[in-house]
Amino acid sequence: MRVVAIDYGLVRIGVAITDNLKLIAYPFKTVQTAKNFEKTSQNILDALKEHLNEIETIIIGLPLSLKGSMSQMATEIQKFVEVLKTKTTIPIKFCDERLTSVMAERHLKDNLKLNRKKRSKIIDPIAATILLQDYIQIYNI
After folding, report:
1. Could you tell me the pTM of the whole model?
2. How do 92-96 and 2-7 pair as beta strands?
3. Which residue from 42, 57, 107, 108 could staple onto 119, CB 3.0 to 4.6 Å apart?
4. Whole-number mean pLDDT of the chain?
């Protein structure tokens, strides 16, 4: 069984997935955000179709403020998850994702020396991978 992480964004959504042993998180895909939550949910499930029967949990990053309170984006993500829950029976959990995109950006800039345009094309699944790897380590799944 696998675990999937979603880094939700207003334009793009990063998706990461674990190996079958749930030891390592891998960047999986970038999914475009649609005009509504229904279509966005379907886009994500379509991207995962080859693995849907292997997924035991979906982790969604919840971008809380630095003080731990709900941000406007966190509220938006909660609304999205309510729609996603109507389209799948896979359990969905929220996970604090504060600064994962910042960490991904820094990693791509410092270690891979990619310019901003190239980083923007791959940052979302990298952020989802950081979120998922943190989840694996924290919850020792």
Report:
1. 0.86
2. unpaired
3. 108
4. 87
